[in-house]
Protein backbone atom coordinates (compact mmCIF):
# COMPACT_ATOMS: atom_id res chain seq x y z
CA UNK A 1 0.00 0.00 0.00
CA UNK A 2 1.52 3.28 -1.06
CA UNK A 3 1.37 5.30 2.14
CA UNK A 4 3.19 8.31 3.43
CA UNK A 5 4.66 7.84 6.88
CA UNK A 6 2.69 10.78 8.25
CA UNK A 7 -0.57 9.35 6.94
CA UNK A 8 0.03 5.88 8.30
CA UNK A 9 0.97 7.27 11.72
CA UNK A 10 -2.33 9.12 11.80
CA UNK A 11 -4.22 6.01 10.82
CA UNK A 12 -3.13 3.98 13.82
CA UNK A 13 -3.28 6.92 16.18
CA UNK A 14 -7.03 6.81 15.56
CA UNK A 15 -7.05 3.11 16.35
CA UNK A 16 -5.31 3.67 19.61
CA UNK A 17 -7.90 6.01 20.90
CA UNK A 18 -17.86 -20.36 -12.23
CA UNK A 19 -21.64 -19.95 -12.44
CA UNK A 20 -23.57 -17.04 -11.02
CA UNK A 21 -24.73 -17.52 -7.47
CA UNK A 22 -26.38 -15.42 -4.81
CA UNK A 23 -23.79 -16.27 -2.18
CA UNK A 24 -20.38 -17.82 -2.04
CA UNK A 25 -20.52 -21.56 -1.55
CA UNK A 26 -18.22 -21.98 1.45
CA UNK A 27 -15.76 -24.85 1.46
CA UNK A 28 -15.52 -24.74 5.23
CA UNK A 29 -17.52 -26.34 8.00
CA UNK A 30 -18.00 -23.04 9.82
CA UNK A 31 -19.19 -19.69 8.52
CA UNK A 32 -15.66 -18.28 8.28
CA UNK A 33 -13.90 -16.71 5.32
CA UNK A 34 -10.31 -16.14 4.26
CA UNK A 35 -9.41 -13.35 1.85
CA UNK A 36 -6.14 -12.06 0.43
CA UNK A 37 -5.42 -8.43 -0.41
CA UNK A 38 -4.42 -8.09 -4.07
CA UNK A 39 -2.68 -4.94 -5.33
CA UNK A 40 -4.30 -4.37 -8.72
CA UNK A 41 -2.23 -1.24 -9.35
CA UNK A 42 0.98 -3.16 -10.05
CA UNK A 43 -0.52 -5.41 -12.74
CA UNK A 44 -1.45 -4.59 -16.30
CA UNK A 45 -2.67 -7.83 -17.81
CA UNK A 46 -3.88 -8.51 -21.33
CA UNK A 47 -6.65 -10.99 -20.58
CA UNK A 48 -8.51 -12.90 -17.90
CA UNK A 49 -6.37 -16.02 -18.31
CA UNK A 50 -3.32 -14.14 -17.02
CA UNK A 51 -4.85 -14.07 -13.53
CA UNK A 52 -5.63 -17.77 -13.40
CA UNK A 53 -2.26 -19.06 -12.19
CA UNK A 54 -2.28 -16.94 -9.04
CA UNK A 55 -5.98 -17.51 -8.43
CA UNK A 56 -5.49 -21.28 -8.66
CA UNK A 57 -2.65 -21.09 -6.11
CA UNK A 58 -4.88 -19.17 -3.73
CA UNK A 59 -7.81 -21.52 -4.18
CA UNK A 60 -5.59 -24.53 -3.49
CA UNK A 61 -4.46 -22.88 -0.24
CA UNK A 62 -8.07 -22.45 0.91
CA UNK A 63 -8.42 -18.74 0.20
CA UNK A 64 -12.05 -17.89 -0.58
CA UNK A 65 -11.70 -14.52 -2.29
CA UNK A 66 -9.34 -11.74 -3.30
CA UNK A 67 -9.81 -8.17 -2.12
CA UNK A 68 -9.00 -6.28 -5.33
CA UNK A 69 -7.36 -3.04 -4.22
CA UNK A 70 -8.90 -0.34 -6.44
CA UNK A 71 -6.77 2.79 -6.65
CA UNK A 72 -6.02 5.47 -9.24
CA UNK A 73 -3.89 3.18 -11.38
CA UNK A 74 -6.60 0.54 -11.85
CA UNK A 75 -8.98 0.47 -14.80
CA UNK A 76 -12.36 -1.20 -15.11
CA UNK A 77 -10.76 -3.29 -17.84
CA UNK A 78 -8.25 -4.76 -15.39
CA UNK A 79 -10.99 -5.35 -12.81
CA UNK A 80 -13.00 -7.07 -15.52
CA UNK A 81 -10.13 -9.38 -16.36
CA UNK A 82 -9.71 -10.25 -12.68
CA UNK A 83 -13.43 -10.92 -12.23
CA UNK A 84 -13.53 -13.09 -15.34
CA UNK A 85 -10.35 -14.94 -14.39
CA UNK A 86 -11.77 -15.66 -10.95
CA UNK A 87 -14.96 -17.04 -12.48
CA UNK A 88 -12.91 -19.37 -14.68
CA UNK A 89 -10.98 -20.66 -11.66
CA UNK A 90 -13.93 -20.84 -9.28
CA UNK A 91 -12.76 -18.34 -6.68
CA UNK A 92 -14.50 -15.15 -5.57
CA UNK A 93 -13.36 -11.52 -5.67
CA UNK A 94 -14.56 -8.15 -4.39
CA UNK A 95 -13.48 -4.53 -4.66
CA UNK A 96 -11.50 -2.90 -1.88
CA UNK A 97 -11.73 0.84 -2.52
CA UNK A 98 -8.43 2.60 -1.85
CA UNK A 99 -9.16 6.10 -0.53
CA UNK A 100 -5.49 6.91 -0.09
CA UNK A 101 -4.61 7.43 -3.75
CA UNK A 102 -7.00 10.19 -4.78
CA UNK A 103 -9.27 8.24 -7.14
CA UNK A 104 -12.06 7.96 -4.58
CA UNK A 105 -13.24 10.53 -2.08
CA UNK A 106 -15.61 10.20 0.84
CA UNK A 107 -17.29 13.29 -0.60
CA UNK A 108 -18.25 11.40 -3.77
CA UNK A 109 -20.17 8.26 -2.73
CA UNK A 110 -21.76 8.07 -6.19
CA UNK A 111 -18.40 7.18 -7.75
CA UNK A 112 -18.01 4.33 -5.29
CA UNK A 113 -21.54 3.11 -5.93
CA UNK A 114 -21.07 3.27 -9.70
CA UNK A 115 -18.06 0.93 -9.51
CA UNK A 116 -19.97 -1.50 -7.34
CA UNK A 117 -22.88 -1.41 -9.78
CA UNK A 118 -20.58 -2.27 -12.69
CA UNK A 119 -19.38 -5.50 -11.06
CA UNK A 120 -21.93 -6.57 -8.44
CA UNK A 121 -23.69 -9.06 -10.70
CA UNK A 122 -20.53 -10.68 -12.08
CA UNK A 123 -20.39 -14.45 -11.44
CA UNK A 124 -17.22 -14.12 -9.33
CA UNK A 125 -18.53 -11.35 -7.07
CA UNK A 126 -18.34 -12.43 -3.44
CA UNK A 127 -21.72 -12.21 -1.75
CA UNK A 128 -22.38 -12.57 1.94
CA UNK A 129 -25.95 -12.77 3.20
CA UNK A 130 -26.98 -12.37 -0.47
CA UNK A 131 -25.29 -8.95 -0.65
CA UNK A 132 -22.23 -7.91 -2.69
CA UNK A 133 -19.27 -7.80 -0.34
CA UNK A 134 -17.33 -4.50 -0.37
CA UNK A 135 -14.33 -3.31 1.59
CA UNK A 136 -11.95 -0.34 1.64
CA UNK A 137 -8.53 0.88 2.52
CA UNK A 138 -9.33 3.92 4.72
CA UNK A 139 -12.29 6.16 3.82
CA UNK A 140 -14.06 6.77 7.15
CA UNK A 141 -16.98 9.16 6.81
CA UNK A 142 -18.28 7.67 3.57
CA UNK A 143 -22.07 7.89 3.28
CA UNK A 144 -22.99 4.23 2.94
CA UNK A 145 -26.66 4.89 2.17
CA UNK A 146 -25.65 7.09 -0.77
CA UNK A 147 -23.24 4.41 -2.01
CA UNK A 148 -25.99 1.81 -1.93
CA UNK A 149 -28.39 4.13 -3.74
CA UNK A 150 -25.86 4.63 -6.54
CA UNK A 151 -25.04 0.91 -6.65
CA UNK A 152 -28.70 -0.04 -6.84
CA UNK A 153 -28.19 -2.67 -4.14
CA UNK A 154 -27.66 -3.20 -0.45
CA UNK A 155 -24.04 -4.14 0.18
CA UNK A 156 -22.25 -6.17 2.85
CA UNK A 157 -19.77 -3.52 3.92
CA UNK A 158 -16.60 -4.20 5.94
CA UNK A 159 -14.44 -1.10 5.46
CA UNK A 160 -10.96 -0.50 6.85
CA UNK A 161 -12.21 2.08 9.32
CA UNK A 162 -10.94 2.67 12.79
CA UNK A 163 -12.06 2.30 16.36
CA UNK A 164 -14.22 5.31 17.14
CA UNK A 165 -15.46 5.87 13.58
CA UNK A 166 -19.19 5.96 12.86
CA UNK A 167 -20.48 2.42 12.26
CA UNK A 168 -23.68 3.56 10.48
CA UNK A 169 -24.38 1.44 7.42
CA UNK A 170 -21.51 -0.97 8.00
CA UNK A 171 -21.59 -4.69 8.73
CA UNK A 172 -18.30 -4.56 10.60
CA UNK A 173 -14.78 -3.18 10.28
CA UNK A 174 -11.51 -4.40 8.76
CA UNK A 175 -8.30 -3.73 10.68
CA UNK A 176 -5.27 -3.25 8.41
CA UNK A 177 -2.63 -3.18 11.17
CA UNK A 178 -1.30 -6.72 11.17
CA UNK A 179 2.18 -5.91 12.55
CA UNK A 180 3.65 -5.05 15.95
CA UNK A 181 3.91 -1.30 16.41
CA UNK A 182 4.23 1.40 19.05
CA UNK A 183 0.46 1.95 18.97
CA UNK A 184 0.81 4.80 16.46
CA UNK A 185 1.91 2.65 13.54
CA UNK A 186 5.58 3.35 14.08
CA UNK A 187 7.87 0.35 14.59
CA UNK A 188 7.32 -1.00 18.08
CA UNK A 189 6.46 -4.06 20.12
CA UNK A 190 2.70 -3.83 20.75
CA UNK A 191 1.29 -7.00 19.17
CA UNK A 192 -1.50 -7.05 16.57
CA UNK A 193 -3.67 -8.81 19.14
CA UNK A 194 -4.04 -5.45 20.93
CA UNK A 195 -5.78 -4.14 17.81
CA UNK A 196 -7.95 -7.25 17.68
CA UNK A 197 -9.21 -6.59 21.20
CA UNK A 198 -9.91 -2.92 20.51
CA UNK A 199 -11.89 -3.67 17.36
CA UNK A 200 -13.89 -6.56 18.80
CA UNK A 201 -14.77 -4.51 21.88
CA UNK A 202 -15.86 -1.56 19.73
CA UNK A 203 -17.84 -3.66 17.25
CA UNK A 204 -19.41 -5.82 19.94
CA UNK A 205 -18.76 -9.10 18.19
CA UNK A 206 -15.89 -10.92 16.52
CA UNK A 207 -18.38 -11.86 13.79
CA UNK A 208 -18.32 -8.20 12.73
CA UNK A 209 -14.53 -8.09 12.62
CA UNK A 210 -12.13 -8.79 9.77
CA UNK A 211 -8.69 -9.47 11.23
CA UNK A 212 -5.40 -8.97 9.38
CA UNK A 213 -2.79 -11.70 8.98
CA UNK A 214 0.54 -10.58 7.58
CA UNK A 215 3.96 -12.23 7.37
CA UNK A 216 6.29 -9.24 7.11
CA UNK A 217 6.67 -5.54 6.42
CA UNK A 218 9.82 -3.90 5.09
CA UNK A 219 10.02 -1.06 2.60
CA UNK A 220 12.91 1.02 1.26
CA UNK A 221 11.66 3.67 -1.17
CA UNK A 222 13.58 6.87 -1.85
CA UNK A 223 13.24 10.00 -3.92
CA UNK A 224 12.63 8.15 -7.17
CA UNK A 225 8.98 7.72 -6.16
CA UNK A 226 6.39 10.08 -4.68
CA UNK A 227 5.80 7.86 -1.64
CA UNK A 228 9.26 7.86 -0.05
CA UNK A 229 9.29 5.51 2.92
CA UNK A 230 11.95 3.52 4.73
CA UNK A 231 10.96 1.39 7.70
CA UNK A 232 10.49 -2.17 8.89
CA UNK A 233 7.94 -3.45 11.38
CA UNK A 234 9.10 -6.10 13.81
CA UNK A 235 8.33 -9.17 11.71
CA UNK A 236 10.71 -11.92 12.85
CA UNK A 237 8.42 -14.89 13.74
CA UNK A 238 5.18 -12.96 13.04
CA UNK A 239 3.76 -15.41 10.47
CA UNK A 240 3.75 -18.21 13.06
CA UNK A 241 2.62 -16.23 16.10
CA UNK A 242 -0.12 -14.39 14.22
CA UNK A 243 -1.75 -17.52 12.83
CA UNK A 244 -1.91 -19.01 16.32
CA UNK A 245 -3.49 -15.79 17.61
CA UNK A 246 -6.11 -16.03 14.85
CA UNK A 247 -7.00 -19.62 15.73
CA UNK A 248 -7.63 -18.58 19.32
CA UNK A 249 -9.58 -15.43 18.39
CA UNK A 250 -11.77 -17.04 15.72
CA UNK A 251 -13.16 -13.97 13.91
CA UNK A 252 -15.67 -14.52 11.10
CA UNK A 253 -13.35 -12.96 8.50
CA UNK A 254 -9.60 -12.74 8.04
CA UNK A 255 -7.61 -11.03 5.31
CA UNK A 256 -4.04 -11.91 4.39
CA UNK A 257 -2.12 -8.66 4.00
CA UNK A 258 -1.00 -9.16 1.29
CA UNK A 259 -0.87 -11.40 -1.74
CA UNK A 260 1.41 -9.21 -3.84
CA UNK A 261 2.49 -5.96 -2.20
CA UNK A 262 6.10 -6.51 -3.19
CA UNK A 263 7.10 -2.95 -2.37
CA UNK A 264 6.35 -3.57 1.31
CA UNK A 265 7.74 -7.13 1.37
CA UNK A 266 4.34 -8.32 2.63
CA UNK A 267 3.64 -10.79 -0.18
CA UNK A 268 2.80 -14.49 -0.02
CA UNK A 269 2.08 -14.82 -3.75
CA UNK A 270 4.68 -15.61 -6.42
CA UNK A 271 7.28 -13.03 -7.45
CA UNK A 272 7.19 -14.63 -10.90
CA UNK A 273 3.69 -13.23 -11.48
CA UNK A 274 3.57 -10.50 -14.11
CA UNK A 275 3.71 -7.08 -12.48
CA UNK A 276 5.10 -3.59 -12.86
CA UNK A 277 8.19 -2.62 -10.91
CA UNK A 278 8.68 0.74 -9.19
CA UNK A 279 12.12 -0.19 -7.91
CA UNK A 280 11.09 -2.91 -5.47
CA UNK A 281 13.02 -5.53 -7.47
CA UNK A 282 16.11 -4.44 -5.54
CA UNK A 283 14.75 -6.13 -2.41
CA UNK A 284 12.53 -8.91 -3.79
CA UNK A 285 14.98 -10.35 -6.33
CA UNK A 286 15.78 -13.92 -5.23
CA UNK A 287 13.44 -13.53 -2.24
CA UNK A 288 10.48 -15.90 -2.72
CA UNK A 289 7.80 -16.11 -0.03
CA UNK A 290 5.84 -19.09 -1.33
CA UNK A 291 6.82 -21.19 1.68
CA UNK A 292 4.68 -18.93 3.82
CA UNK A 293 1.65 -19.75 1.68
CA UNK A 294 2.46 -23.46 2.09
CA UNK A 295 2.63 -23.00 5.84
CA UNK A 296 -0.71 -21.19 5.86
CA UNK A 297 -2.62 -24.11 4.34
CA UNK A 298 -3.14 -26.17 7.52
CA UNK A 299 -3.83 -23.00 9.49
CA UNK A 300 -6.51 -21.93 7.03
CA UNK A 301 -8.09 -25.38 7.24
CA UNK A 302 -8.03 -25.29 11.05
CA UNK A 303 -9.47 -21.77 11.14
CA UNK A 304 -12.37 -22.74 8.90
CA UNK A 305 -13.07 -25.82 10.98
CA UNK A 306 -13.18 -23.78 14.17
CA UNK A 307 -10.12 -25.58 15.57
CA UNK A 308 -7.51 -23.96 17.79
CA UNK A 309 -4.62 -26.10 16.54
CA UNK A 310 -3.69 -27.48 13.15
CA UNK A 311 -3.74 -31.00 11.75
CA UNK A 312 -0.70 -31.90 9.64
CA UNK A 313 -1.19 -34.14 6.62
CA UNK A 314 2.12 -33.42 4.87
CA UNK A 315 5.34 -33.07 6.80
CA UNK A 316 7.64 -30.19 5.92
CA UNK A 317 9.90 -27.53 7.30
CA UNK A 318 9.33 -23.88 6.45
CA UNK A 319 12.27 -21.57 7.15
CA UNK A 320 13.04 -17.90 6.66
CA UNK A 321 15.73 -15.36 7.36
CA UNK A 322 17.00 -11.99 6.18
CA UNK A 323 19.85 -12.04 3.64
CA UNK A 324 22.25 -10.10 5.90
CA UNK A 325 22.87 -9.39 9.59
CA UNK A 326 21.37 -6.09 10.71
CA UNK A 327 24.74 -4.70 11.81
CA UNK A 328 26.31 -4.40 8.36
CA UNK A 329 26.97 -1.01 6.81
CA UNK A 330 25.78 -0.23 3.27
CA UNK A 331 27.78 2.92 2.60
CA UNK A 332 26.31 3.43 -0.87
CA UNK A 333 22.72 3.47 0.38
CA UNK A 334 21.80 7.11 0.95
CA UNK A 335 18.48 6.14 2.53
CA UNK A 336 20.24 4.56 5.48
CA UNK A 337 18.91 1.74 7.61
CA UNK A 338 15.13 1.49 7.84
CA UNK A 339 13.45 2.74 10.99
CA UNK A 340 12.76 -0.26 13.20
CA UNK A 341 15.85 -2.18 12.10
CA UNK A 342 17.00 -2.59 15.70
CA UNK A 343 13.78 -4.46 16.53
CA UNK A 344 14.65 -7.20 14.07
CA UNK A 345 16.59 -10.15 15.46
CA UNK A 346 19.56 -11.81 13.79
CA UNK A 347 17.91 -15.22 13.81
CA UNK A 348 16.88 -17.95 11.43
CA UNK A 349 13.31 -19.16 11.94
CA UNK A 350 12.11 -22.71 11.30
CA UNK A 351 8.54 -23.96 11.58
CA UNK A 352 8.18 -27.72 11.72
CA UNK A 353 4.90 -29.15 10.43
CA UNK A 354 4.98 -32.75 11.61
CA UNK A 355 2.59 -35.70 11.81
CA UNK A 356 4.71 -37.26 14.56
CA UNK A 357 7.43 -35.85 16.79
CA UNK A 358 10.89 -35.56 15.32
CA UNK A 359 14.28 -33.91 15.55
CA UNK A 360 14.90 -30.78 13.51
CA UNK A 361 18.49 -29.73 12.91
CA UNK A 362 19.33 -26.33 11.48
CA UNK A 363 22.70 -24.93 10.45
CA UNK A 364 23.29 -21.24 9.80
CA UNK A 365 26.89 -20.57 8.85
CA UNK A 366 28.97 -21.89 11.77
CA UNK A 367 25.93 -22.23 14.07
CA UNK A 368 24.11 -25.55 14.41
CA UNK A 369 21.20 -26.41 16.71
CA UNK A 370 18.91 -29.40 17.06
CA UNK A 371 15.35 -29.15 18.34
CA UNK A 372 12.92 -31.78 19.55
CA UNK A 373 9.78 -30.86 17.64
CA UNK A 374 6.35 -32.20 18.65
CA UNK A 375 3.62 -33.33 16.30
CA UNK A 376 1.73 -30.39 14.83
CA UNK A 377 3.27 -26.96 14.27
CA UNK A 378 6.23 -25.69 16.26
CA UNK A 379 8.59 -22.72 15.94
CA UNK A 380 12.36 -22.94 16.39
CA UNK A 381 15.11 -20.32 16.17
CA UNK A 382 18.88 -20.20 15.96
CA UNK A 383 21.40 -17.37 15.68
CA UNK A 384 22.03 -16.14 12.16
CA UNK A 385 25.42 -17.09 10.74
CA UNK A 386 27.08 -15.90 7.56
CA UNK A 387 27.33 -18.70 5.01
CA UNK A 388 25.34 -21.80 4.10
CA UNK A 389 21.89 -22.51 5.57
CA UNK A 390 20.91 -26.17 5.97
CA UNK A 391 17.86 -27.90 7.49
CA UNK A 392 16.92 -31.52 8.18
CA UNK A 393 14.33 -33.72 9.91
CA UNK A 394 14.81 -37.07 11.59
CA UNK A 395 12.33 -39.50 13.05
CA UNK A 396 14.39 -41.45 15.52
CA UNK A 397 17.70 -42.21 13.82
CA UNK A 398 16.24 -42.06 10.31
CA UNK A 399 16.69 -38.89 8.30
CA UNK A 400 13.41 -38.07 6.56
CA UNK A 401 14.68 -35.20 4.47
CA UNK A 402 17.30 -32.47 4.38
CA UNK A 403 18.21 -29.58 2.12
CA UNK A 404 20.64 -26.73 1.71
CA UNK A 405 18.97 -23.38 1.06
CA UNK A 406 19.53 -21.79 -2.32
CA UNK A 407 20.45 -18.50 -0.64
CA UNK A 408 23.37 -17.93 1.71
CA UNK A 409 23.46 -15.26 4.38
CA UNK A 410 26.15 -12.72 3.46
CA UNK A 411 27.85 -9.78 5.15
CA UNK A 412 27.74 -7.57 2.06
CA UNK A 413 24.86 -5.45 0.74
CA UNK A 414 22.81 -7.15 -2.00
CA UNK A 415 22.11 -4.62 -4.75
CA UNK A 416 24.03 -2.10 -2.65
CA UNK A 417 21.15 -1.47 -0.23
CA UNK A 418 19.91 -2.38 3.22
CA UNK A 419 17.60 -5.31 2.54
CA UNK A 420 15.33 -6.27 5.44
CA UNK A 421 13.09 -8.52 3.36
CA UNK A 422 12.95 -12.27 4.12
CA UNK A 423 14.02 -15.27 2.10
CA UNK A 424 11.56 -18.14 2.62
CA UNK A 425 12.22 -21.78 1.76
CA UNK A 426 10.81 -25.22 2.44
CA UNK A 427 12.10 -28.73 2.95
CA UNK A 428 11.28 -30.57 0.76
CA UNK A 429 11.87 -27.70 -1.64
CA UNK A 430 8.90 -26.10 -3.38
CA UNK A 431 8.81 -25.31 -7.08
CA UNK A 432 11.16 -22.47 -8.10
CA UNK A 433 9.76 -18.95 -7.97
CA UNK A 434 11.91 -16.36 -9.69
CA UNK A 435 11.57 -12.74 -10.68
CA UNK A 436 11.57 -12.94 -14.48
CA UNK A 437 11.57 -10.46 -17.32
CA UNK A 438 8.02 -10.87 -18.57
CA UNK A 439 7.87 -7.73 -20.65
CA UNK A 440 5.98 -5.72 -18.06
CA UNK A 441 8.67 -5.11 -15.43
CA UNK A 442 10.34 -1.72 -15.65
CA UNK A 443 12.58 -0.88 -12.72
CA UNK A 444 13.11 2.75 -11.69
CA UNK A 445 16.46 3.07 -9.98
CA UNK A 446 17.59 6.37 -8.44
CA UNK A 447 20.71 8.22 -9.49
CA UNK A 448 23.71 6.88 -7.66
CA UNK A 449 22.37 3.35 -7.30
CA UNK A 450 24.32 0.81 -9.31
CA UNK A 451 21.60 -1.79 -9.36
CA UNK A 452 20.20 -3.98 -12.07
CA UNK A 453 18.85 -7.15 -10.43
CA UNK A 454 20.20 -10.28 -12.07
CA UNK A 455 19.68 -14.00 -11.58
CA UNK A 456 21.80 -15.33 -8.78
CA UNK A 457 20.17 -18.46 -7.37
CA UNK A 458 20.94 -21.85 -8.91
CA UNK A 459 17.20 -22.57 -9.17
CA UNK A 460 16.75 -19.73 -11.68
CA UNK A 461 15.73 -20.46 -15.23
CA UNK A 462 18.35 -19.56 -17.82
CA UNK A 463 18.11 -15.93 -18.81
CA UNK A 464 15.65 -14.93 -16.09
CA UNK A 465 16.14 -11.30 -15.21
CA UNK A 466 14.52 -8.08 -14.11
CA UNK A 467 15.21 -5.02 -16.18
CA UNK A 468 16.65 -1.85 -14.71
CA UNK A 469 17.91 1.58 -15.67
From TrEMBL:
Gene3D superfamilies named in the record: Glycosidases
Record bears the keyword Cytoplasm: no
GO molecular function: glucan endo-1,3-alpha-glucosidase activity
UniProt-listed Pfam families: Glyco_hydro_71
CDD domains from the UniProt entry: GH71
Keywords noted in UniProt: Signal
Keyword DNA-binding: no
Signal peptide: 1-18
InterPro entries: Glyco_hydro_71
Protein name per Swiss-Prot or TrEMBL: Alpha-1,3-glucanase-like protein
Species of origin: Ophiobolus disseminans
